[in-house]
């Protein structure tokens, strides 16, 4: 589930991550998503919630809808929502609406494993500090903006820890966006965001992520280089592939070359499909 204030960039985040324009991106002041929208990617479902901050009555209605969804169980009796991604505007000085959502609604509703089921994402890093410290050539923040964004992330973490006792440090990134008649801005730190999403969802749903990943290579070029996120993504999908193999399936299928160091024939049509999905991620993100 994606939640956040109006204009924080939930829809552009969905569009940047996945290989389709599944959500209309707003460039005006009116929220584009007025009800909780459902996008089905194989066995993975994305819930895009309306933006908060457009009036008390509207916010209360949206908050009730979010709580209802968080309290739903799947057919196995597990929570329907595996992960809540809270999209916040890193260029905004007023994050009160986001804090109220996180501290008073999401964390109390997520239960004992709340820290593992919530991801804080500070979007629009490119326009923080009025965009004056964004390097267009490298598509990255300069040193001044890096310091600002890290302080912003620390501030958010501290505010939430004071209210809930949980220490959750946000990821800052830029999803990119399309303006009327303009070009798509290149994302930044999207690979990092994808890694933390993959890490947080059940293994049986990771392949749906792989099969629907945005195939625009520019989306995955730029990140903060604090760690090798691509290698971590590779490792996460490798674990998933190994689980598929060791589960044991019927018919053998041929795959070409080496995928994750596994050569030749792999057992199971389901595994073959998984290999195809993961191979597509490698072509898109790893350029090979």
Task: Describe, in plain words, how this protein is organized in 3D.
There is one protein chain. The chain is α/β, with parallel strands linked by helices and 288 residues long. The protein folds into 2 domains: 2-224, Rossmann fold; 230-285, no CATH class. The protein is 40% helix and 16% strand. The strands form 4 sheets. The protein has a 4-stranded parallel sheet, with helices on both faces. Helix 3 (96-110) links the parallel strand 4 and strand 5. The protein is globular. Residues 26-30 and 248-269 have low confidence and may be disordered.
How many β-strand runs? 10
Coarse shape: globular
Estimated share of beta-strand residues: 15-25%
| Count of alpha and pi helical runs | 8
Give Rg in angstroms. Answer: 19 Å
Query: What is the residue-mean pLDDT, rounded to a whole number?
Result: 81
Uncertain segments: 26-30, 248-269
Name of the CATH first level of the largest domain: Alpha Beta
Q: Can you tell me the CATH architecture of the largest domain?
A: 3-Layer(aba) Sandwich
Order of helices and strands: EHEEHEHEEEHEHHHEEH
- Structural domain tally: 2
Instruction: Characterize the quaternary organization of these chains.
Output: single chain
CATH topology of the largest domain: Rossmann fold
- Structural category is alpha/beta
Strand order of the largest sheet: 1-4-5-8
Organism: Kandleria vitulina
Pfam families: MMR_HSR1 (PF01926)
Domain G: 2-123
InterPro entries: GTP-bd, P-loop_NTPase
């Amino acid at each position: 589930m994606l939640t956040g204030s109006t204009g924080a960039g939930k829809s552009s985040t969905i569009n940047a991550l996945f290989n389709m324009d599944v959500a209309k991106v707003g460039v005006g002041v009116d929220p584009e998503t007025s009800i909780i929208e459902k996008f089905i990617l194989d066995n993975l479902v994305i819930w895009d919630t309306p933006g908060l901050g457009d009036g008390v009555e509207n916010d209360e209605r949206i908050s009730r809808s979010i709580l209802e969804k968080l309290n739903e169980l799947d057919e196995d009796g597990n929570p329907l929502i595996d992960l809540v991604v809270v999209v916040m505007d890193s260029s905004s000085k007023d994050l009160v609406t986001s804090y109220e959502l996180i501290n008073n609604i999401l964390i109390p509703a997520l239960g004992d494993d709340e820290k593992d089921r919530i991801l804080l994402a500070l979007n629009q890093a490119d326009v923080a500090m009025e965009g004056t410290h964004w390097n267009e050539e490298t598509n990255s923040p300069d040193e001044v903006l890096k310091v600002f964004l890290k302080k912003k992330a620390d501030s958010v973490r501290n505010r939430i820890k004071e209210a809930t006792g949980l220490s959750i440090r946000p990821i800052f990134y830029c999803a990119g966006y399309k303006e009327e008649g303009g070009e798509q801005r290149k994302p930044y730190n999207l690979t990092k965001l994808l890694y933390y999403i993959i890490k947080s969802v059940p293994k049986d749903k990771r392949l749906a992520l792989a099969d629907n990943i945005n195939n625009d290579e520019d989306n995955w070029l730029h990140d903060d280089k604090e760690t090798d996120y691509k290698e971590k993504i590779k490792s996460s999908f490798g674990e998933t592939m190994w689980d598929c193999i060791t589960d044991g399936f019927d018919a053998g299928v041929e795959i070409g070359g080496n995928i994750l160091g596994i050569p030749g024939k792999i057992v199971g049509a389901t595994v073959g499909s998984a290999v195809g999905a993961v191979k597509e991620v490698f072509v898109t993100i790893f350029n090979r």
